[in-house]
Specification:
- By secondary structure, the chain is of the alpha+beta class.
- The chain has three domains: 241 residues, Rossmann fold; 130 residues, no CATH class; 61 residues, no CATH class.
- It is built from 13 helices and 17 strands.
- Strands 3, 9, 13, 14, 15, 16 and 17 form a seven-stranded mixed sheet that branches.
- Helix 5 crosses helix 6, helix 6 packs antiparallel against helix 7 and helix 11 packs antiparallel against helix 12.
- The radius of gyration is 27 Å and the shape is globular.
- It starts with a strand and ends with a helix.
């Protein structure tokens, strides 16, 4: 199952249009081909504040089982808001319609055989009649009213999770080899963490570490088993992001608890830097939930995963921002990730994925640009200019001085001001930094050459 597209009808702040989510492009040739190695599919949502990035994540979360955050964001507009979320699963396509306009209290779903025409017209007619939502399964050829979200388990084992980058992991009490208590779909799709999340995370890591230790004893240095494979992949991913060796350990005293070895230091989770705790807060939580949901699966990290991330760059230095999402793509190779971000370092770090730029017009209505494939050659400076649309390089005060300089320079060339006035302004700017000093020297040399050329003309 994967999200194919979303279409909006009266769904503020979006204009009535559709956003497509293509498959991951290849590095060369056909943009619809899969990437050379198996990597998680990434869709980066970016744009200025108020362009609906988090609202779009909330819409997907609602379609997958938790409409709470979306309803809170829509407020009174929930009575008329409508959106279609097209999802493919085997030979089915799902369309999710929101919310009170359906006559239902929660989200609903229409499922059609892939390729069947006219589903949007049928949906709009259904909304007009407010008779509820028809469910059609091509395999069973049955129809009925369905009020709940799309049951992804009907297609194959998968999981949908949502996280906010500002949330941070905490310590929690654990018990030796305690069975895991898995949360509900609604809890998995809450962007903000709860205490239950920390308990699941710590208990899962404890169980996996115990399992890995027993596997090592039994296999005596062999390739290891399930616990070894999962913990090794996780710890290697976090080590690659932070640049230091990272590992979880279970300590028995004074009470059983999880500790983290990071570099040469041994710390409890609460003692870790906020950036590392935010990474643990969602990256390790994904593994804990996959482990809890699929305890018999030999490699739950390969389970299809729909992952919603709201600003995962929070608390992170740019050096870590550059490595985080590529590490997650490797760690969860069968995932589809939707990531709302303002970070040029996150955007430029993804080589295989898509960039969706959301823009608001003068009336405040938001439309998405055509999806751009991520480029392996883009720098964060390219992203700042081309994707985020920021042309200024200096602080606002310096930019104001530079604008004044350019205005005076134009007047000097056209004979309406003196060169001395321009040089005086250049001295003020040059005193601010070495780079500005070099810039002003180049500008004045260029002006001198231009003035000499004008004098030399017959």
């Amino acid at each position: 199952m994967r999200i194919q597209a979303v279409a909006f009808r009266g769904f503020a702040p979006f204009a009535d249009h559709e956003i497509e989510f293509p498959v991951v492009p290849a590095t060369e040739g056909d943009c619809t081909a899969p990437s050379p190695r198996q990597l998680g599919e990434v869709h980066l949502l970016t744009g200025q504040n108020g362009t609906g990035k988090t609202r779009l994540l909330s819409l997907i979360s609602a379609a997958c089982g938790n409409p709470t955050e979306l309803l809170n964001r829509l407020g009174g507009a929930a009575d008329s808001a409508c959106a279609f979320l097209k999802m493919s699963a085997a030979d089915e396509v799902g369309i999710w319609g929101s919310l009170e306009a359906t006559g239902l209290s929660e989200s609903g779903m229409i499922l059609y055989p892939a390729g069947e025409a006219g589903h949007e017209e049928f949906w709009m007619a259904l909304l007009a009649s407010k008779q509820g939502i028809l469910y059609h399964n091509a395999k069973r050829e049955s129809r009925g009213v369905r009020n709940n979200a799309f049951d992804m388990q009907s297609a194959k084992a998968s999981l949908s999770l949502a996280f906010r980058g500002t949330s941070r992991a905490m310590d929690a009490q654990i018990v030796a080899m305690q069975p895991l208590s898995f949360g509900t779909e609604r809890e998995d799709l809450l962007f903000d963490r709860s205490a239950k999340e920390d308990t699941l995370l710590c208990q899962s890591m404890s169980n996996l570490k115990f399992a890995a230790a027993m596997e090592n004893l039994r296999l005596r240095g062999g390739d290891g088993g399930r616990g070894v494979a999962i913990t090794s992949r996780l710890e290697n991913a976090i080590s690659s992001v932070t640049g230091r060796r990272f590992a979880f350990e279970v300590h028995p005293s004074p009470e059983l608890h999880i500790k983290v070895f990071w570099g040469k230091d041994s710390m409890r989770i609460a003692e870790l830097p906020d950036g590392l705790r935010s990474i643990i807060g969602w990256l390790v939580s994904c593994i804990a939930k996959l482990d809890a949901k699929f305890p018999e699966h030999p490699n739950p990290l390969d389970i299809p995963l729909l992952l919603l991330l709201d600003e995962p760059e929070s608390h992170l230095h740019p050096a870590w921002q550059r490595k985080l999402i590529p590490a997650a793509q490797i760690l969860f190779p069968n995932s589809q990730m939707f990531i709302a971000t303002h970070s040029p370092f996150v955007i430029s770090s993804v080589n295989h994925g898509w960039i969706h730029i959301l823009r608001a017009n003068a009336d405040g209505q938001v439309v998405a640009d055509k999806p751009r494939p991520c480029s392996p050659g883009d720098t964060y400076l390219d992203v700042v200019s081309d994707i985020l649309g920021i042309e200024e390089w200096y602080d606002p005060e310096t930019e104001h001085l530079l604008a004044e300089f350019r205005s005076i320079r134009k007047d000097v060339i056209e004979g309406r001001n003196s060169v001395d006035h321009l040089r005086s302004k250049a001295e003020v700017i040059a005193a601010r930094s070495a780079s500005l000093s070099n810039m002003m020297a180049r500008e004045l040399r260029q002006l001198d050459r231009l003035m000499v050329a004008e004098v030399a003309e017959p």
